Amino acid sequence: MRKRDGVGTVPGGRKERPARRPRPAPGAPRFARPLTPASVLGWTALSAVAPGAAHLRAGRRRTGLILISVYAVLLLAALAFGLTRNRSDAAAFVGDGMMLAVIIAASALALAWFAIVVSSYVVLSPKRLNQQGQILTGVVVGVMCVAVMAPFAFVAETMATFRGTVKDIFPSSSDPGTPTVAHNPEDPWAGKTRVNFLLIGGDAAGNRTGVRTDSMNVASIDIKTGNTVLFSLPRNLQHVHFPASSPLHKQFPNGYMAELPNGGLLNEVWQYANDNPQIMGGRNMGPRALMDAIGYTLGLKIDYYALINMYGFAALVDAIGGLKVHVESDVKWGGLYGTAGTIKAGYRRLSGEEALWYGRSRVNSDDFSRMSRQRCVIGAFAQQATPQVILSNFRKIAGATKRMAQTNIPQPLLPPIMELAVKVKDAKITSLQFVPPEFYSGRPDWVKIRQATKKAISDSLRPARRAQTANVTASPSGTAPSASPTQTQAAAPTQTPTRNTQKAGAKSLDELCGL
């Protein structure tokens, strides 16, 4: 007779033992309750955020704990790295080795997260679901795999684009005559206290032969503080001299004289050197000739140059969504009479074409007014091209930059230049134009130009005079002064003059352009 608890007797008087349930195979998942399609997707999605969660749910405790522990360590390490970095550390990411490391790391993380999502889904045994549930969860998990890989793929692709742009623009080694890059990370400038960059705006186009350097500015930067002086030289500066080390010194011992097409203007030097390689001792020596001429004029050693094609600059302005400026008075552009259009006075967001012609228009204007507008447009661009704007428009910016830039800055110098750029962003920037009535382009006083250059650099090293106790800044519009000591935000419009009103001495860009 059998008992209800499963223990009874059999013939012969022996007790019958209850039947045992079969044990699951080693490593098989043990669920508290059967999983539904929704719960399979939920645990898989959770594992994409917290790797190992699905393995714990499926009974794979050792694997789950290992995944969670590794993820926690990596997360804490990334958080500590981010909290201990500052803006200047970003310069390390422009080195070729670091860029390649970022590409490899991002690609590896994309594959790792793909594997985590797939393994999390598999360990939950979706085969236990009915056919409809298996199809649904498989499709959704496939989409999930693409989603988790996308951020890492974006980082890798963006860095690859940036690396390609750097290689297209910056030479891998120094040109002859360019300062050698020091390999000492503590002093990449080899003991120098200042570095001088020649910034050139060229107007090369399909309907023109060669390059005319219509905009020439020298940025002289104090390496320690980042304090910068911008020297603007007019395109029609005549009869510049060359140092004895230049091949053009023997050709023009008394200056770049008037037998040339337009009277020996400064903006002809680049093309003359390129057109006469037999004199310069090589091809494409225009940059070196212009650096020699401007450096000798200012009494400075020009270290590097960067040429920006004007039409490439227009594409760059379009890439960041336009440029906000304050136009003081109407500016007509196009031909001699401004028949193409008019940029109205007031606060305007200029397209690339409008920004280009705003800086180039000669209608009812002169070269010196153009210089002022060009300088302020460049300042407005530097102010409004914030890291957020650059990242959100990176692909367009990279494409425009490849078409617009030429330089002799070697790739190994990019990290220290980035560090220097961070200093310049928060430092004092002053500007000096060599224009009438203080300086006459047709009859240059070379001694006076060098003295003014030396004084401007000396003055830039002095502390800025500000009403620091009241934390106020002057308001040029006559409104109430601002109580904030911080700099103007990037999106603020930039006032640009249309008349040459500069007086003697270097002025800050705040005074000249309302930056």
From TrEMBL:
Belongs to the LytR/CpsA/Psr (LCP) family. PANTHER family: POLYISOPRENYL-TEICHOIC ACID--PEPTIDOGLYCAN TEICHOIC ACID TRANSFERASE TAGU (PTHR33392:SF6). Keywords: Membrane, Transmembrane, Transmembrane helix. Residues 473-498 have a biased composition (Low complexity). Residues 1-33, 457-515 are annotated as: Disordered. The chain crosses the membrane at residues 65-83, 98-123, 135-156. This is Transcriptional attenuator, LytR family. Residues 212-385 form the Cell envelope-related transcriptional attenuator domain. The keyword Translocase does not apply. The lineage of its organism: Bacteria, Bacillati, Actinomycetota, Actinomycetes, Streptosporangiales. InterPro entries: LytR/CpsA/Psr_CW_biosynth, LytR_CpsA_psr.
